[in-house]
Hints:
This protein has 211 residues and is mostly helical. It has helices spanning 6-13, 18-24, 27-45, 51-62, 66-85, 87-109, 112-125, 163-177, 193-196, 203-209.
Amino acid sequence: MSTPSAIEVCRSDLFTKKDELEQRYPQVIVDKVLRVREMYNWFIANPDGTDREFVNEVCQRHEISKVTAYSDLAIVKTLLPTLGQASRDFHRWRTNEMLMNTFKMAQKRKDTKTMERAATAYGKLNRVDLEDEQAMPYDMIVPQQFTATDDPRVLGIEPIPNIQEKISSMIEKYRKETIDIEDVEFEEVDLEFDVLFPDKTNDDATEEGLL
């Protein structure tokens, strides 16, 4: 069974616990996922951060080469749209982690009031007080109504008078100008791609750029 690529593992197991990752994947993949997770959080905390700042930060934290750092950056940027769509799930997971940490700290101090507040917030966040069929009120969702129209005024644009006549006039005008155009058959390009673009094996790029 082949080992999945780092980006595939990040897509499926970005927030999986470290010990579970180590049971499933080689250490080099685990290290990659943990770095990407850490630097994704850095992006959340620094939304105006530049690519150079990202690279400098990850190189300083983990003492990796810039090639590997840019590889991490590419994965984070690839994941950001997907994670953005699932941002609600991510922030719920993050809030659950903070609530559990708060509960454990309060439990050590025997602070029952804080424990109760953390447990209440945890239950409310995860909607454990609702029945499963009530968790998502599908019957209250009203579909958006759309009506098709060819009136540009709905976009704030005034219609062009006699638009159909103008279209016909333009078609007739350009049809006359293109009367000498000759259609030709498609021909396959006869290029020796193997000679022009020989495959090159770069062990350094494979080791640092693809992992």
